[in-house]
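Batch job 17 of 40 flagged for manual review because the log was empty.
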Amino acid sequence: MEYIIKVVQKLKNDNVGGIIKARMNEFKENRKGDVFKELCFCILTANFNAERSIKIQEEIGDGFLTLSESELATRLRQLGHRYPNVRAKYIVEARKHELKLEEDAFRMREWLVNNIKGIGYKEASHFLRNIGYEDVAILDFHILNILERYNVIKKPKTLTKRKYLEIEEKMREIAKRSEISLGELDLYLWYIETGKVLK
């Protein structure tokens, strides 16, 4: 844990810190736009590449709101998504729900996990962070690998809700000691692992 805190502190004072601050501000602006398209992006990223999902999101745009399930599946297939049929199904089903944004990120995350197919804790946390909520952790394999590498956790075989929340608490401690939010910490850890600041 100490090593991660030290690296994050160094990056904070580097130009990476400025890039991450700017990205967090962009996320807050996303909340004023069409949050449903951001939800679609997070549905697409499950077991798939984030950078390719960003490109697909940009290509399809308003099509997430209007295309039929078969049209959307065709577009996803053309754009190289790994699971075009099932993701199209999840997105079309998600349209039936009204996304009510609340102040409480944890209550909202529970609602998303319980109501939107294709959304688990990781994807719900990713969506919330991408629309400006800063107090939930996105535990994807990159993050889990880093936490295990630096002896913060032993990587679980399966990520149950209880285990997710346990690891999120460890992330919260790192964030608090680094004087940043959990949302920012995710971007720092991603940068440490990949050399990129994505979303």
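Reviewer: the log was empty due to a logging misconfiguration, but the result itself is present. The mean pLDDT is 92. Unflagging and moving on to job 18.
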